[in-house]
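Continuing from the previous page...

OK, I double-checked the sequence for DegT/DnrJ/EryC1/StrS aminotransferase family protein against my notes and this is the correct one:
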Amino acid sequence: MKIIGSERFLNIDFLNTGESDFFKDLGKSNIKFFSSGRSAIYDFFKNEFSSSSVFFPDFYCMEMLNPIIKAGVNIVFYTVRENLTADTEILGRIKNVKWIYINDYCGFRDNGLVVFAKKRGMKIIFDRTHSLYSKFDFSNDVQIGSLRKLLPVPDGGILLNSRRKDIKRKRDSSFYLLKLNAKLRRHIYEEFNSNEKIEMNYVRLSEESEKKIKINSKNISLYSEKILSAYDVKRSRELRRKNFKMLLSSKTIKERAVIKGLDSLTVPQSFPMYVEKRDEVKKILAKDRIFAPVLWRGENSISKRIINIPVDEEYTESDMIRIIQGIEKILKTER
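Thanks. Re-ran it with the corrected sequence; updated structure tokens here:
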């Protein structure tokens, strides 16, 4: 049975010959590559950040937060509500913090927060890990992100609109080779040999590779950079939007959806929805080879109930129907 979610393997049908327009556009924003998103975050806050404090969302993963703490920056949290928009009350009360870190959750933009920040004259740092494909106006704002949440690459982080000139840096292989090995074994398991030992191996290698990720100044692997440069982002955008809309077509699922519509600028990273007994739902879906990740486990109450359904471009209409049927069956038992 086809695996949905988990480690993504590169589908060469999504590779173009030559550099894509998307890659060329990124290059216009003074792009700097890193081996990971957390390394890109650390580099900016350590070497370019011009203040002592930053507003930061209270719905986060530690991989986002730790590099900022390591750089010695003070964190002032603002609340993210259940619809994934910010409560700007604390932002209005504290006047001496001039920078704000905005995460485009699941690829969607909190326009109200952006307008608020710009009216206050705040400097914005956009985390584009989920909105790399979305067509928002980033202007000259700082943009940071990991490439692994949207692209089937083993490593990679980016910093856009950096004020520092990049220098030649060594490429990192500490976790990239393990991650690539895990992806290959997952492909073998799914396509050629559904042996339990192969499954255990790809899961083990994937977990080991995550532990190997270090915060450093090293460059992205040449393998991942070449994939990014040739990846068919235009087609990926269309298919992700199509898959998201298919999930919304289910009345049962739409009732639980965090975001119930899709504007023309947004390209979703995943489909966020709320369920009771979230971890139990994950286990039931996993039995049907549907792996729905929890992207952030923080103190915010959202993290206890939210689940992210994959809408990756390699999933076909029949794959999405299988997801819909699996979720609908679970949700009916919750009523």
